[in-house]
Amino acid sequence: MAHGAFDRVGPGPGDPGAAVPDGLPMLSAGRHRGPERGSCVMEYVSVLAGEPWSDHPRCTDPALAELARRVNDDVRTDARPALAALAPGLAGAVGARAATDVVVAAVAGVGLERAPDDAVLSRVRGRALARLARERAGAGLPRFARLGSIARVGDVYLQFGRTLRGAARPERDAARVRALTAAVEDVRRHVGTPAPRPPVTVALTDADRTTAPSAP
Length: 216
What we know:
This protein is mainly alpha-helical. The chain has two domains: 5-95 and 195-209, no CATH class; 100-190, no CATH class. The chain has seven helices and two strands. Strands 1-2 form a two-stranded antiparallel ribbon. Helix 4 runs antiparallel to helix 5 (119-136). The longest helix is centred in the C-terminal third of the chain and has 23 residues, at 169-191. The protein is globular and about 40 Å long.
């Protein structure tokens, strides 16, 4: 028996004026045991993709999902409807290889729009783009390449947050949504995922309300 439905209908990804689709639990911070207790953006994505209720759905690249959870938890309630508009793009944004460098480069790139002289973001983005270029060329890294290890999404996101110091809260929220929007677009392009399908109605069933363990 269905317990309501919500529609994949609304303004385009990242539109700060997007409304929460009908029937979707109010997006809120943290993990939720079921939709009756609320939802984060990745839990919403798990239902869109037909997966068990979880904030770690398999349909989204792990690095991209991590970024989405961090943005979901950091922005204010009135900024989260924009994340609902990104959910269809998050669903299916996954490939055979991890897209960590893609996500890192996207977040660093948006940070550099605000702080073009940030040496940390510039270095991290340059190394990520260099690794991606070699991957596209089908070449491995040179034996003595000094590209460093792959940056962690959390570390880059923290540095990105430092570039927002002093900004008004709405501006900080908009920048975080912009970073996630850029990452979604870049990951989908990287893995060759088609654009999200036209709006459909997704029903919440009893199975959706079964708590699925979160990935470690």
